TrEMBL record, chains A, B:
One of its GO terms (molecular function) is transcription cis-regulatory region binding. PANTHER family: HTH-TYPE TRANSCRIPTIONAL REGULATOR GALS (PTHR30146:SF109), LACI-RELATED TRANSCRIPTIONAL REPRESSOR (PTHR30146). The keyword Transcription applies. SUPFAM superfamilies: lambda repressor-like DNA-binding domains, Periplasmic binding protein-like I. Residues 1-53 form the HTH lacI-type domain. Keywords: DNA-binding, Transcription, Transcription regulation. It comes from the Bacteria. This is LacI family transcriptional regulator. The keyword Signal does not apply.
Length: 335, 335
DNA sequence: GTCTTGGCTGTCACCGATGACAGCGCTTGC
DNA sequence: GCAAGCGCTGTCATCGGTGACAGCCAAGAC
């Protein structure tokens, strides 16, 4: 910064004021400083500012992985919003137990970011407590967290509408397929199932437990097994509701492999509106992943800028049923 | 830190030494300091250390988006490798021209990270020059950059093997479909086409320009038009080589919509080995995206730790042909 | 007994910004 | 003509660590 000051013929203080956009700098000086800064490719050393201001200009994001459609979409929504606010994006992808222990032990986000966004991350009570006394703003994304601001969708309501759509098409035997819950923390899965069951109940349909299935190894051979089991039931389902689109894609592949025509024999419904859902013609419940990210940043900014970190504020974004080719009336409908 | 020093009855310097694990601290002192630090739940302020050491403990990544399969996979490879090295991950997703101008104007990565990884980002000469005088280590990922370390795959060779596979199956009329090049910087696209053409040439097949097609609006209606055009040629192709898997997925959808059986009438080959390629049974050229990320981090560490930033080192990772159901012999093959 | 050595610890300048405060030149009011 | 006010800019202490250097003390060499 001293270099810039020297080149522009002013003091470091003026350079600082100019680069921070304070109004108490004359236009001519400002122009000179900006020119000098550009010529020297000068960029603020955040460490130094942080030391004085106590703010880092960085926002940390904690997520269970980086490659899933939902998470990468959410990140895509955050990035431009953060950039616009002049905030940098620090990503902590914590996948396995070892990384997890390490993260909560070292708490690298501490004092290293102005806020921490927790995205789709099922915290144990101990972890939650640890984050709570981090003394930094916490924002929860795609999950409801009591006592902290959060942004999410109403999974239960969305699933309810999904199942209702299938019922309205004439389906009476509707299976619900979910990923095998290794962690015990698949809250959205639970909520979606609850919505599904409620829709059945609302329609006066009985709940057949054999139509709710957890599928282990669903990315491998587990899906074929599940399809075989369902299709060989005494009274097989005419519609399958998959917990996520990704799951539904494998389901479609397994059905194709088993020569089960979709939707002629069974309808398939997903959840997410993954990019590929459109390509594959999958009926699904669209979840605004990008918008969730964007909104989370808005919330974060308001928390940081007003330092009302303790304020509890919950935003629920809408989901939307997107009917496509994978759902239709059941084989014997209308007869 | 002063508090800890006071409580432990030592100087700040000793506290610093203790917490950094330097060996020149006696065991008794170390124990006292550690106890004091724990009691006060002291965490060091990285900004302050950075200011002195000049190292930030952060690595910045510049990529054109966050949601594509390739980029999110590459990130997935980087994250654990960085964490293992105790480095934080700073992500700059620069998509539109406005963000782009802003990024290269403000150069936010400068002095705020120990290295910058440029992933699949087509730089203009001016931008490249700008990064070059950033004075920080630069590592290029999924692209070759003269004068800087880089990690990438040999697109040309991979495409050559892909086309050769089709030729070996008996195909003689092979079309190559690429995304419409808005930017003029689709280097991998160019290299893949070159490999394709070389394979044709090697096999003594003539290159029919009408079989190389850029598809505008390939995510919308453009694909159907392209398929229509190809399939109504005097001598239509029996195999289609799509520049990327994502592209191939849309192509498969368009073919299905046009009732063109795959691979009975036309074979389809992709490039990437996107997760969905397996689900959809797409033959493709696997590109080790996660491994590229991991390797990039290894390279980065070596550059940072040995401060041999100027050293040029190029690593080429292997691609692999993954035959699946979308390719087979041409309709009239063997006759 | 003196000198050297090595282990351990303290002192203090410094990293690069920020912000409080002072100062400068000029206009305005009286 | 002088004081007050305003707009703009410079000076300097400061943030929380690090690292160079000096100092102290006990052990061992001569």
């Amino acid at each position: 910064m001293a270099d810039v000051a020297h080149r522009a013929g002013v003091s470091v203080s003026t350079v600082s004021r100019t680069l921070r956009g304070l109004s108490t700098v004359s236009d001519t000086t400002r122009a000179r400083v900006e020119a000098a800064a550009r010529e020297l490719s000068f960029a603020i050393t955040r460490s130094a500012s942080s030391l004085v201001t106590g703010r880092t200009g960085r926002v940390a994001v904690l997520m269970p992985n980086l490659a899933s459609w939902f998470l990468s979409s959410a990140l895509s929504g955050m990035a431009p919003a953060l950039r616009e606010a002049g905030l940098d994006l620090l990503v902590y992808s914590v996948t396995d137990v070892h990384e997890r222990a390490d993260f909560f032990d070292r708490l690298p986000a501490r004092r290293n970011a102005d806020a921490l966004l927790v995205v789709s991350f099922a915290l144990t009570p101990a972890e939650r407590a640890r984050l709570d006394d981090l003394g930094m703003p916490l924002i929860f994304v795609s999950q409801h967290a009591p006592g902290r601001p959060s942004v999410y969708v109403d999974d239960e309501d969305a699933a309810l509408r999904g199942t209702r759509h299938l019922i309205n098409l004439g389906h009476r035997r509707i299976a619900f397929l979910q990923t095998f819950d290794e962690t015990g923390f698949a809250w959205s899965s639970k909520n979606r199932l609850a919505g599904h069951l409620r829709a059945l109940d609302d329609a006066g349909l009985e709940h057949d437990p054999s139509l709710v299935m957890s599928v282990p190894d669903w990315k491998g051979g587990g899906m074929a097994t599940a399809v075989g089991r369902l299709m060989s039931l005494q009274d097989p389902p005419t519609a399958l509701f998959a917990e996520t689109d990704d799951f539904a894609f494998r389901l479609l592949a397994a059905l194709r492999a088993a020569n089960v025509p979709v939707p002629a024999q069974v309808s398939v419904m997903g959840f997410d509106d993954h990019v590929m859902a459109e390509v594959l013609g999958l009926t699904t419940l669209a979840q605004p992943a990008v918008e969730l990210g964007r909104t989370a940043v808005r919330l974060t900014r308001s928390v940081i800028e007003n330092s009302d970190g303790a304020q509890e504020r919950h935003i629920v974004l809408p989901t939307e049923l997107v009917p496509r080719g994978s759902t239709g009336p059941p084989p014997a409908a209308g007869s």
